[in-house]
Design brief:
With about 375 residues, the protein is mainly α. Helices cover about 80% and strands about 0% of the residues. It has 16 helices and 2 strands. It has a two-stranded antiparallel ribbon with strand order 1-2. Helix 3 crosses helix 4. The longest helix has about 35 residues. The protein is globular, with a radius of gyration of 21 Å.
Amino acid sequence: MDVNDKTAEAHKKRVKYGYMMALFCAILWAIWYIPGTYIWDFDVIGDFLVIAGDKVGDDAGTIVAAMLITALNAAFVIFSYIIWNFFLGTAKFSEMKRSIKEMRACTKYYFLGAICGGPIAILGSFLAMGYVGGAFAAVAALAYPVIGTLLSRVWLGQKISHRAIAGILIILIGSITIFGIGMIADMRDPLVPDSVIIGYIGGIMALCGWGIEGAIAAKGIDVSEPDVAITLRFAMENIIWWAIALPVLFLMSFPVWEYAWKMISDPIILLTLVMLGLTFGFCYVAWYKAFPLIGVGRGQGIGSLYGIFSVIFLILFFGVTAAIGDGLDRQISLVAGAILCTVGTLIMFTEKTENVESLRETGEGTEEEVP
C-alpha cells in the first residue's frame, strides 16, 4: 500500500467517524425531547406558571417558566462536561485556560454560539414543547441544516454539492409541511388558543438558532479542540442565564431562585434534569466533533435525523395524541414533514466520501483540505 492509498484509507476512516458522531448526536438529541416534554407536567412548574401568569399574564408567564427550565438545562449540561473533562484528563483544563488567555479571539465565537444556542434555539425549543408539543418541537427545527449549510458556504467557504442542494430543497419542503399545514390546522381549530403561535415562533427560533450556531461553532473549532469549545460555549450560556437573565427576573419579583431550588430538591425532577443534561450535553459533544470531520452542512444534515427518532421515541413514551396532539391534519403534517426532512437528510448522508475530501475553497479558487 503506497502513500496515496494510506491517505485515502485514513480519509475514509475520518469521514466514517464524522458520520458516526453526527448519527450519535441525532440519537441523543431525540432522547432529550423525552425529559424535555415530561418536565412541563410537574406540579412545581404548574405552580410557577400560576405565579408568573398572575404577574404578567399566562403567555408571558410561560415564557418565563421556559427561561427557568432552559437555565437549569444549561446548568446540568455544564455539570456533565465538568465530569467529562475530568475523565479526559487535566490536559483538557489546561487547554481551556490556554483558549481563554492566549486565544481571546476564539472566545467571541463561544459567546455568540451561546447566545444563538441558548436564549434563541434551546429556549425556542422549550417554548415549542410547552405550547405545541414535544413532537412538533422536535421536527420544527429540522430545517436548521439549510441555514447552517448556507452560512458555512458564505462565511466559511465550505462547498455545497449538487446532492446536498437536492437534500436541502427536500428538507425545505418538509419544513413548510410541518409549519404551514400544522399552523393552518391549529388556527382553524376553535379549541386551540391563539397563544399557540408562540410555540410556532419558538420552533422558528430553534431552527434559526441552531443553524447559525453550527456555522459559528466551526469558526471556534478552527482555533480550539471540540471538547474545550463545547465546554466554554455552555459555560458562557450559564453566565447569560445565571448572572444576567435570572437575576433580572428576580428583580422583577419572579421567584426564580425559590422554584429553581424546589425543582433541584425534588428527586424525580432532579433525575429529569440529570437526563436533560446528559443527553443534551453529549449530543452537543458529538455534534461539535462531527463539524471538523465532515463539515457544518453534513454534520447538521445527519444530526437532523433526530427528528424522526424523536417522533418515534415520544410516541412510544407518551402515545400518539400526547406526543403529536389532537387533529388528523396536524398529525399528518408532522409525520409527513418529518419523513420529507429525513429523506432530504439521507440524500446528503449517502454522498460518497470522495466528495467530502475537501470541504473548503480558498480565495484563489483552489481547495483547502480539512486537517
